[in-house]
Amino acid sequence: MKFQTPKGTRDFMPEEAAKLQKVLDIVRSVFEKYGFAPIFTPMFEDFGLLSAKGGLGEAVKNEIYYFKDKADRELGLRFDLTMPLVRVIASNPQIPKPFKRYAISRVWRYDQPQAMRYREFWQADVDVVGSSSIIADVECIAATCESLERLGFQDFFIRINNRKIVQSIFEKSIGMNNIREAFRSIDKLGKIGDDGVKAELEEKAIDSKTITKIMKFLKISGSNNSIIIKLGKKYGQVDGLTELEDLLKFAKKFGMAKRLKIDLSLVRGLDYYTGCVFEVELGGGVSCGGGGRYDNLVKDIGGPDIAATGISMGISRIFEVMKNNKMFESLPSNTTRVFIANVDKKLLPEAIKVSKRLRNKAKGVLCQTDLMDRNLTKQLEYADSLGVDYVIIVGQKELKEGKYVLKDMKMKLEDRLKIGEIIKKFKKSQKSMDKSKKN
User: Fold this and answer.
1) Do 224 and 144 share a structural domain?
2) Could you tell me the sign of the dihedral formed by the alpha carbons of 301, 305, 306, 309, in that order?
3) Which residue among 48, 104, 264, 308 is least crowded, i.e. fewest CB within 10 A of its CB?
4) How far apart are CA 315 and CA 321, in angstroms?
């Protein structure tokens, strides 16, 4: 019998898993630097939560992994990390506010797999619950920007808008009452273009005059400041416009205003968004995340009336882009990988002693010894296949002299050093790596 991974999933073998772990570690370190704390929630949730009002509703059943347990309870694998957070807040209203949390984990959606789209994938979320301040939105965006910069991205940007602006103009100036379906079509503008949006709006029985007004509104463009000025002049008092101005003002304080671009077509499909919304673009038409303010969602599932905002990054998609563009090669390492080879199997205990001393004394050193009773040549071949940084050779001569052969596998150089000198060398290397990581 030959088994394969389920459709839309994949294995991460050691080399790729190490790269993915590096991404997760970098993102985690940035999130924690901004004061976000981790939480872990179950992989599956009550279907009632996943289909709650404000989300996709009952229709979500066709888009997730839905099942019943042996007690006939309706459940589903989580499709994002927001709904579990909302449940946590609703169940624990006593949590001190603001509650700043991050979650980095896997989620599942029953999509049709395609390029950079899987049914099982990693996400990284930051959220602030309990604060209605626009600074909470900006902090989430800032943590996302710094994460991407630390990963080596340079040309990314974040599209921003405020749903209140669109809703206010559609209702007061364009004369639309039922805007939910229109929002879902408008949000696809970047994917299906003007003609696609017009066609969808026509299918939803929206008259041609209204469609013309909608398309003119979506065509308002320019710099962020000029768009805000144009909206004020054309439509007068517009709900949400001040919030968008404040977001840009504080983004400047955080040093990332240059990353933001107002896009009036951005409304995000989910109905639970209530204010500012965001979409992360890596360039080349690749979106890797988004989010926004969802002030009513906790209340909608039976919790207190409490403000909330957050942003999610698609780690799996980021990983694919980094891999395709060979970006991992430029990421600073924070570990030194060492293989301790023994010339004679009788000397394996001595090699183990060396590995123990290195693990205890040299921070960031990952050691391993031979477990297969190989000769020295085979051990060196194995070490080379692992891509380790160094090999230390333990033989009778080395033990007698108190000096070991240290082979630099990257530079193809070797030296004979005392174990204390080797540890000192690794410590110096680690300090250099730590400094590079901070920069």
Assistant:
1) yes
2) positive
3) 48
4) 10
